[in-house]
From TrEMBL:
InterPro entries: LEKR1. The gene is Lekr1. Residues 6-33, 63-97 form a coiled coil. It comes from Tichodroma muraria. This is LEKR1 protein. It comes from the Eukaryota. Keywords: Coiled coil.
Amino acid sequence: LISSATKSLRMEAEILEKKLQDAQMKLAEKDGDKEKEIQSLKRLISELEFQLTMEKSNNESFLDKLRKEIKHKTDELEKLTQEKTQLIHSLSQVQEENSLLQDTVRRECEERFELTAALGRAREQVLELRRLSGTLP
């Protein structure tokens, strides 16, 4: 009875040991698969970090170019605004000068008209005097 029970327990122990070995092998396989997956994920993370670094670098470079372009355009706009202001000032001066010249021309035309009228009267008076002096001895 004891021998049979011992034999039965040994067989059961062997079966359990075999199951234990199978479970350990499966666990080792799963651990190996997990390790492979971890390594794969680490490589993927490294690649993604590199891509992210490259994108950041590209974005910073692009932003620097945009900042320089904005600075250039701002400077250009400021220069054009100054030129516009100068042109408006020059236009104002030219318009003032034009107005002054038109006023001068108008006055000179009025004076000429008055002088022409006075000259016409003086001629008439000279002709009248000549006519009168021709009748007088």
